[in-house]
Amino acid sequence: MFSFFKKKNSQTHKLCYEVDLHSHILPGIDDGSPNTEKSIGLIREMQNWGIRKIIATPHIAEETFENTPETIKNAWDLLKATLKTEGIEQEICYSAEYRIDDGFIRMFESNQLIPLPDNYLLVENSFIQAFWNLDELLFQLQLKEFKPILAHPERYAYYHNQKNIYTTMHNNGCAFQVNLLSFSGYYGKSVKEAAFWLAEQGYIDFLGTDLHNMNHVQAISSFLTTKDYTKLISKINIKNDMLK
Ligand SMILES: [Fe+2]
């Protein structure tokens, strides 16, 4: 009887996808995990949610997280070596979460971008205002065969009263990745409302953990037990597991 209840409980906490394409679990290179020990703790939690493949996406942003393909690979190498030493099996690869700024334009023009599988590219806006030439840039990326994914569109407060911008961007070929944390209310009421609005419109192409730390783990784990979560997964049709 005990094992029956245990099994039921663990199943309720599974995520509705197996490939996570947005996390900050590489050690010591951004505001996510500071070291390999913390990275392993986060990976174990992701495994409990049923995630089989992790695409780590450290920040690359001018003046804050000036990562390069080399700094990211070094952190990935270190984490892979630690996983091996600890005997933990986990598929993990890396890309980046690119802040759209002048540094990003330079990386784009000099072919230094590290795409996700299938040439998707995870980009984020500034939280203060969108890049002045965002639409043109998204168009140029697509001309070069990249498939842009805007990270957490629901978190940009300046779009909340101009939701037609979401429609235009999505219609113009920009995919949307919404954070699980947003539905939980972790970033506040208006972000939560925007996340559910995007779900209602059918604009959610990918979900992501955007995992940085154990506070995020707790918020996501609690959300997975709620009716809101059950309601959400009945409405969306995501493509995470196409990135296997
Ligand atoms: Fe992120």
Automatic annotation (TrEMBL):
Keywords linked to the UniProt accession: Hydrolase
Reactions listed under catalytic activity: O-phospho-L-tyrosyl-[protein] + H2O = L-tyrosyl-[protein] + phosphate
Top EC category: hydrolase
Documented EC number(s): 3.1.3.48
Molecular function terms from GO: manganese ion binding; protein tyrosine phosphatase activity
InterPro entries, alphabetized: Caps_polysacc_synth_CpsB/CapC, Pol/histidinol_Pase-like
Family: Belongs to the metallo-dependent hydrolases superfamily. CpsB/CapC family.
Name of this protein: protein-tyrosine-phosphatase
Organism encoding this protein: Coprobacter fastidiosus NSB1 = JCM 33896
